[in-house]
């Protein structure tokens, strides 16, 4: 059976090999064992039910709380030539009946179902009357009352499923599960310990940052400017906050979408579709956005406000970097946020002991913002991850420890280079001079005769650019106002050049993963154009240009 699974992996999905955990989960399901898979966001849980669904006879029932994503999932399978469909409230009654009929005729290998369908006897009878390969609960933490996203309707499905006459193998899949939640799911879905696959929670490509004591909006502005050719999500606490941030970026000419429960379903769907299908752009959202969304190239997730607990935080932050490339998870912390979160718990209609528990979870979240431990290690500890937790070396705490280094000399080299180049060039050209590049433009200006030429030849241009960005962030340099960002010395820089001020690398302030520097200038110019058109004619940033085409052009 497993060789068949390997065959499907390559033939249908075009992947060379399984990722960690996948083969094991697939193996258990093929062996008809009830199975629980706990694997991080983006690790490929879907494949764990897709392949058994193709391999085993009968229909696979996939229960998911994410109605808005079912169509995409089904479309993706249909493109691969798989017989799949979905039934949920977005369909008319006639359509639902038609699909129900197809289901009874065993026309599908996969049927995706919203939990509510199980309230219908018609539906339950239909699946009782056909051979089933297995029933999978996607986002299985939603069935546990200890889960941070508990849905009562989801739990009652479990009862119905357990009493089915033709009860098949049961599968639970989730990315976030504390020990309580794991235990709960295991009991509910009757999973043996030996059939639990837990690949741990580590996401090596994510860098975590806590930013405090800064103007949040200014921080974000600066960050976004350096990451304009990327896609990212900003989570805010309230609808009002989402609207405000949206307006702010919209006016700045940044391609931006918003998502919260106050918008109509059509508006939300459109915002989600645009965000998913464009390569770059911002999504400003409340926590209503994102569960199960498979957008692989989200490069950063920022939290403009404190999440209610670590589970929620890790799940939201974990939407960054599903493709495995380096990505940033930035939490902008302000002490006032604690008050709001406490208020929300107080106002909720939870039972007293549940409230106490929520307070404790909030406290762990607050501790995360104050700890000086490695942030990744803190999170893994919280989930009781069994792997040996080591410092990640790239979160704001790790860097802060490692990098309280003096960089005065290097800063002097850069600043004097900027000066000698006449304060007329951007970061990229300055870095080339310091690197000692043979760039034609550089040579035509005679910059290879500068005393600063090649002074930093041991570093990569990227590293030099990164340090220049740091000097900008720390107000030693200004990026200038002209059509292209041109570096100019700030008063502080003169102190450094005179030797009366030292430069320390306090990396905590800047997320270190710099955007690929290429064509930052182009993006900057486009942003200004969008801004102007938006101001003049009220044209939404996205309508103005298809950004993907632009990125192609830029290459
Ligand atoms: P999640 O675990 O969050 O549900 P998904 O199932 O949505 O993750 O998968 C995330 C991404 O990983 C998808 O784009 C998927 O195509 C890809 N993927 C899954 N398995 C593999 C594999 N074995 N090799 C390469 N890519 C994979
Ligand atoms: Mg998933
Ligand atoms: Zn760390």
UniProtKB/TrEMBL annotation:
GO BP terms in the entry: DNA recombination; DNA repair; DNA replication; SOS response
GO cellular component: bacterial nucleoid; cytoplasm; replisome
Boundaries of every Helicase ATP-binding domain copy: 26-195
Annotated catalysed reactions: Couples ATP hydrolysis with the unwinding of duplex DNA by translocating in the 3'-5' direction
Top-rank taxon: Bacteria
Gene Ontology molecular function, alphabetical: 3'-5' DNA helicase activity; ATP binding; DNA binding; four-way junction helicase activity; hydrolase activity; metal ion binding
Cofactor: Zn(2+); Mg(2+)
EC number(s) from the headed UniProt entry: 5.6.2.4
Limits of the Helicase C-terminal domain: 219-363
Keywords: ATP-binding, DNA damage, DNA recombination, DNA repair, DNA-binding, Helicase, Hydrolase, Isomerase, Metal-binding, Nucleotide-binding, Zinc
Enzyme class of the recorded protein, top EC level: isomerase
Similarity annotation: Belongs to the helicase family. RecQ subfamily.
Protein name as catalogued: DNA helicase RecQ
